[in-house]
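Example S7 (structure tokens).
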């Protein structure tokens, strides 16, 4: 029987575990989100110390790792959940490190006897990794006596308690609605140890995100287009259904569509790579946002982000 170590070099454990790599990826992949990144670093430090304590025989129980991510749409919650799954896997807290993302429709059935099999099937897929439940508050509909969300909630609560050494559940949504959800379902609040709030991006951060998104597809903005994009962001933020980075991605997709149509209508000869990759001011300013409208092609449902 091997003897438990008497000392630990936390810096060496940090490098050997691969946590440093995950945190570097977090910094490089996500713009802004300083408070979120700090909470992830603090959680990583806690888990490294807990792992060292377990190796020395000082701790035996798996810590509660279930989490709540609150914030508006498009603030990086799903991306951070994926990175958290990798972090937990590297530290040995989950076997596989995969992420399963679901909403109410994936868990709740429409008739008697349908909900339990759906919920259990999702949980089976998520075992060994992280289950991310987006807009978790939609599970609870007390005004509808024929709703089966409560059945899914009871199964989730049981599994979160009994299988916490093999599954981490992250519940996400708007902060105020999550507070109401936890107040109505105190079993969840008692099982969730880590609450992380995701702030909205600033205008400058959204412009940096736009540049990064375009660069990832080998596109760029000229100086006038970048100025127009900055103005677009300021205008779009004050409109309904603004979804942070998600809205920026949608806007850039439409700008690329306009650029393609402009190139087809204006081209009089061969085009080089620079011409095919440049988004210009007219491609941005053609947006309805500059005329007081929404930059969408059809009406937006009330619950949609964009």
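Recovered sequence:
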């Amino acid at each position: 029987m091997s003897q438990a170590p008497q000392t630990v070099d936390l810096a060496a454990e940090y490098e050997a575990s691969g946590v440093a790599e995950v945190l570097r990826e977090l910094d490089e992949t996500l713009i802004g989100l300083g408070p979120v990144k700090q909470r992830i670093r603090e959680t990583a430090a806690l888990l490294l110390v807990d792992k060292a304590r377990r190796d020395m025989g000082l701790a035996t129980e798996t810590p509660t790792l279930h989490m709540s991510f609150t914030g508006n749409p498009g603030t990086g919650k799903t991306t951070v959940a994926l990175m958290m799954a990798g972090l937990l896997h590297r530290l040995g807290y989950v076997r596989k490190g995969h992420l399963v993302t679901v909403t109410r429709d994936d868990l709740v059935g429409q008739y008697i006897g349908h909900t339990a099999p759906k919920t259990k099937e999702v949980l089976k897929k998520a075992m060994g990794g992280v289950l991310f439940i987006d807009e978790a508050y939609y599970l609870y509909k007390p005004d509808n006596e024929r709703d089966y969300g409560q059945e899914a909630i009871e199964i989730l609560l049981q599994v979160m308690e009994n299988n916490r050494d093999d599954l981490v559940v992250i519940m996400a949504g708007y902060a105020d609605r999550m507070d109401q959800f936890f107040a109505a379902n105190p079993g969840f609040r008692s099982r969730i140890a880590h609450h992380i709030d995701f702030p909205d991006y600033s205008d400058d951060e959204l412009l940096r995100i736009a540049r990064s998104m375009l660069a990832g597809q080998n596109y760029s903005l000229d100086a006038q287009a970048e100025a127009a994009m900055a103005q677009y962001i300021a205008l779009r933020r004050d409109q309904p259904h603004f979804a942070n980075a998600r809205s920026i991605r949608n806007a850039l997709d439409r700008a690329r569509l306009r650029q393609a149509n402009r190139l087809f209508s204006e081209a009089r000869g061969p085009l080089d790579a620079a011409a095919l990759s440049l988004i210009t001011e007219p491609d941005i300013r053609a947006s309805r946002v500059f005329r007081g409208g929404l930059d969408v092609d059809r009406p937006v449902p009330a619950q949609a982000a964009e």
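Notes on this example. Confidence is low (pLDDT under 50) at residues 297-306.
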